[in-house]
Amino acid sequence: MVALSQTALDQYSLIKTCKPSGFFSGIPVINLTDPDAKSLIVEACQEFGFFKLVNHGVRMEFISRLETLAISFFDLPQSEKDKVGPPDPFGYGNKRIGPNGDIGWIEYLLLNTNPQITSHKTLSISQENPQIFSSAVDDYILAVKSMAYEVLELMADGLGIEPRNVLSKLVRDEKSDSCFRVNYYPPCQELQALSGRNLVGFGEHTDPQIISVLRSNNTTGLQICLRDGTWVSVPPDQTSFFINVGDALQVMTNGRLRSLKHRVLADTIKSRISMIYFGGPPLSEKIAPLPNLLAEGEESLYEQFTWCEYKNSAYKSRLADYRLGLFEKK
Ligand code: GA4
Fold first, then answer.
1. Whether residue 315 has its Cβ less than 6 Å from ligand 1
2. Fewer beta carbons below 10 Å: N end or C end of the chain?
3. Which residue did the predictor score with more confidence, 9 or 19?
4. Contact 250, 39 (CB under 8 A)
5. Angle between helices 130-159 and 37-47 (to 10 degrees)
6. Residue 180: count of CB within 10 angstroms of its CB
7. What is the atom index within ligand 1 of the atom nearest the CA of 323?
């Protein structure tokens, strides 16, 4: 038994391990209906690039329906799941993340969020009734998008920039290059017992887009990197959303808001499931500091680039690379 597990561990020796850290109690919690939400959001995004959102208005039934369907998909035999993969970048993926050799203790579905482009892959996720999964995704995404627009509008208000839809319109645009991911992290008890550490489910990285909206079940795993470089664990909360600033928003605010370095460790006992909406701009959009935000004489910290250029460069990188580095002015 031990020998068998050791083989399994050797097989996964490329998957990194980490020591779990204590829960962090300092994560800003923002109530979307709070009259002070706009300034609290800006403060949280300046300090952490991250906050927890409560009273978000997304109906629990949309969340639960999608989660249940996703779990049934991940419970299917491997050969069935493989029919929806490998990701190109959309589709079902197992352990391999992105095209450049990153691996983690994870299975996932990466989907396009544009309802007009429901791919055959999305349709084949729920075999008995192909529409079930895609309509659950559509309902969920619609609700999460409208909450994300509101957050981005409050953010613009809080930053004192006009018009208030200057950020939300990019994600709202029908050509917005957004995507959606369902991550499933199976428990890793045996492998953990052998290594004495937790397996990394999704290695450290920042998200390239404008905004990411995450919802998970009640299993721990998400860790964020604080300004001083320490990694802390985020207490899970299945009724709330976690919002994080992406690289594009960091550039558009000339570094005032910070994109968040984060990672996920697999739990030893329980599986973790998370669903993340990544709001991105249209491919042709120029990503540069918003002029109304720059103080007099303040220059952009970054070379100008389009979202398409940034995305292409991101797909040539490894997860942990500092992707904005290539675009910083020397
Ligand atoms: C991180 C954020 C999103 O999950 C994602 C990821 C993408 C992928 O899994 O295909 C990337 C990663 C993410 C950043 C660097 C590249 C691209 C894997 C990878 C190694 C869908 C995205 O947009 O960028």
1. yes
2. C
3. 19
4. no
5. 90
6. 23
7. 15
Contacts of 239 (CB under 8 A, 6+ apart): 54, 60
Q: Which DSSP category does 323 fall into? A: G
Q: What is the rounded CA–CA span in Å between residue 132 and residue 29?
A: 33
Closest C-alpha residue for ligand 1 atom 5? 207
DSSP state of 166: T
> Would you say the CB of residue 100 lies under 6 angstroms from ligand 1?
yes
Backbone angles phi, psi at 219, to 5 degrees: -90, 135
- DSSP designation for 294: S
pLDDT one-digit tens code per residue, 87-118: 999 999 999 999 999 999 999 999 988 755 55
The maximal CA–CA distance of the chain, rounded, in angstroms, is 68
Task: Give the per-residue pLDDT at 129.
Answer: 67
User: What's the distance, Cα to Cα, between the start and end of the chain in Å?
Assistant: 55
Share of the chain above pLDDT 90, in %: 80
Nearest to 237 by CA among 259, 221, 225: 221
CB-based contact 277:290 (threshold 8 Å)? no
| 230 vs 12, higher pLDDT | 230
| Tokens, residue 190 | 């045996």
**Structure tokens belonging to residue 315:** 């797909």
